[in-house]
Amino acid sequence: MTNQKTGFRRRLANYGDADFSLYLRKAFAKSMGYRDSDLAKPIVGIANTYSGFVSCHGTVPELVKAVSDGVTAAGGLPLEFPTISLGESFVTPTSMYFRNLMALETEEMISGQPLDAVVLVGGCDKTVPAQLMAAASADVPAIQLVTGPMMTGSHRGEQLGACTDCRRYWAAHRRGEVSAEEIDEITGQLCPTAGTCMVMGTASTMACMTEAMGMMLPGGAAIPAVNADRLRHARETGRQAVTLCASGPKPSEIMTDAALTNALRVLLAIGGSTNGLVHLAAIAGRLGFNIDYARLDQLSRETPVLVDLKPSGAHYMEDLERAGGMAPVLRELAPLLDLDCLTVTGRTLGEELADAPQAWPQDVVKTRSEPVFPEGGIAVLRGNLAPDGAIIKQSAASPELLRHEGRAVVFDSLKDMAARIDAPDLDVEPEDILVLRNAGPKGAPGMPEAGYLPIPKKLALRGIKDMVRLSDARMSGTAFGTVVLHAVPEAAIGGPLALIKSGDRIRLDVAERELQLLVSDEELAARRAAWSPPDIEAERGWAKLYIDHVEQADRGCDLDFLTAPERRGTVPL
Ligand code: FES
After folding, report:
1. 76-114 per-position pLDDT tens digit
2. Ligand 1 atom nearest residue 125's Cα
3. Ligand 1 in contact with 449 (CB < 6 A)?
4. What is the Cα–Cα distance from 237 to 217, expressed in whole angstroms?
C-alpha cells in the first residue's frame, strides 16, 4: 500500500504505522470530495499568499485558480495552501524583518506536505525572495509565479506610478510646492490597479531576475497584473508544474552558480533595486554560495544599464512588457550570459531565448552601444567606513554628487532622525553628508528602507533635491538620489559608522569606488575604545530568533542556521 512514494503517499504523518497513516489521510482527503483516482495523481502545491494586508497580491485568488486549472488540465491534483504574506507598507517595523520568517515557514510547508512540485505565487518585495529562499532549501521542484506590475495612473495629465512618483511628489510637498489637498488627490492615482509597484523597484527587479535565473516560465516577469496574459501565464505555469512533478529539474539544478551570475548580470543591466542584491545573496547563501563583491563590481564596470525604467530612466513596467518583456533584455545581454543554464521548462535559457518572439522597434530596452547608463546600476564601495562593502545605485544618483567631500551630519538612530531632521536649528548645509546609523539588520532591527533620508526641511524649502546620504540601512528600489547603503558591518555591532561624529569629513568617489572617513586611525582607535554597543537584545519569540541569528547585508540578512551548511563557492563567476 505504501510502495509508491509520490503524491498523496509522500511524507506521511508519523503514527508508527505507515499503512494506518495512509488510510487515515485518505479518509480525510475524501471529506474534501476527492476520488481515489484523484489521489493517485501527481500533486502540485500552490503557495497562496493572498492577504487583506497585501495590496500587491489582490489578484492572487484568480491566479491560484488559473494555476489550478492548468494543473488539472495537465493531469495533476492542485492543492493550495496558505503561507505568510508580506505587504511593504502594512507591517512594522519593516517587511524585511519578516522575510526570513516567511522563507522558513514556506520551506517547512513545502517540505512537510505531500506535494511533488510547488507553484509559488508571490509578488510584493519580500515575498518572492522568501519563496525562492524556501525553494532553494526545500529543493522540491518549484516554479515562481509573480502577481505582475500595476498599470500606471494619471494625475492632471501626467502619467505616474508607485513609488518613484510617490517619493517625487512627497519631496515636492516637503518643499512646499504641492499642497496637502493635491497630495491626497495623488494617493488615488499612484496605485490605480492591483499588482506590484510598476517601476523597476524591488518587486519588478526580483521578477526580472527570477525569469533570468530560470525559475519562472519565459515571458512572465513584466506582464501587468490585470492583463489577461497574466492568467494565461498562470495556467501555463500550472501545466508546467505537473511536468516538473515527474522529472524536475529541482531548484538546485536551476539556481546554479552560473544562473545566479546571470541574475546578477540582469540586476545590473535593468538598473535594478539595491534590495535585489541582498535577496540574491540570501538565495545564493541557501545554495552554498557567497557573493564576491569585488567580482560583482567588475561585472558592474562591464554591464551597462539597458532598461529605461524609473527610477534610473523614464518608463514603467507596462512599457517594458510592450517592448517584449525580458526577451529583448536577455537578447542584448546574451554575449554576457551563460545560455546553457537550465530553466523550469527543462530547456536552456538559450533555447528559450531562440524561441522567444522576435524583436520589434521600441525605445525601452536600449543597446549595449547606446545604454541608459554606461555601467551597471549598482557600484560597490570600499574604504574605512565599509570594510566589507557598501553600495550605491549610481544610475539613480545625481552625477555631480558621485564625487563629493562633505561634513557629516550624524543621526544616531531612526528615532533620532525623526526627532531632528526637520528641526529649524539643525546644523546642516546642502554640501553636507547625512549619516544614519543603527539602522542595519540588527540595529533597527530589520534593516528598514530608511537609507533614503529625507532632505532636511530647511534645505528642502530652499529647493535642495539631493544630498549624499550614507547608512547601514536599505532603500526602496523605487527611490532615487545619491544614497550610499548597506554599510557592512553595521554600526550596532561596531561597524565604523558607529565611530563617525558630526563635523567629521567624509569622501565619496564612486568612480574610484571609495568611501572614506577622513579621520586618523589613532583617533578612530580611541573612539572605538570608548564605544559601547546599543541595547539590541530581544527576550522572546521571532525577535529573539532574528536578533540572535541574522547575518549582515553582504550575506543577505538571512538567519545563520538557514544558510547551506557548506560553502560551495562564490558568485558571480
Ligand atoms: Fe508591493 Fe511595491 S509595495 S511591490
Report:
1. 999 999 999 999 999 999 999 999 999 999 999 999 999
2. 4
3. no
4. 7
Residue 56 CB–ligand 1 contact under 6 Å: yes
Ligand 1 atom closest to 162 (CA)? 2
User: Domains in the chain, please, with CATH?
Assistant: 153-190 (no CATH), 378-536 (3.50.30.80)
* 196 Cβ inside 6 Å of ligand 1: yes
Q: How far, in Å, is the centroid of ligand 1 from the Cα of 171? A: 19
Q: Which atom in ligand 1 lies closest to the alpha carbon of residue 54?
A: 1
Q: Which of 52, 55, 53 is nearest to 198 (CA)?
A: 55
pTM (predicted TM-score): 0.97
DSSP string spanning 37-50?
Answer: HHHTS-EEEEEE--
Q: Could you check whether the bond before residue 82 is cis, i.e. omega within 30 degrees of 0? A: no
> Which DSSP category does 493 fall into?
G
Using an 8 Å Cβ cutoff, are 84 and 105 in contact? yes
Specify the residue with its C-alpha closest to ligand 1, atom 2: 197
Cβ atoms of 201 and 271 closer than 8 Å = no
Give residue-wise pLDDT tens across range 317-352.
999 999 999 999 999 999 999 999 999 999 999 999
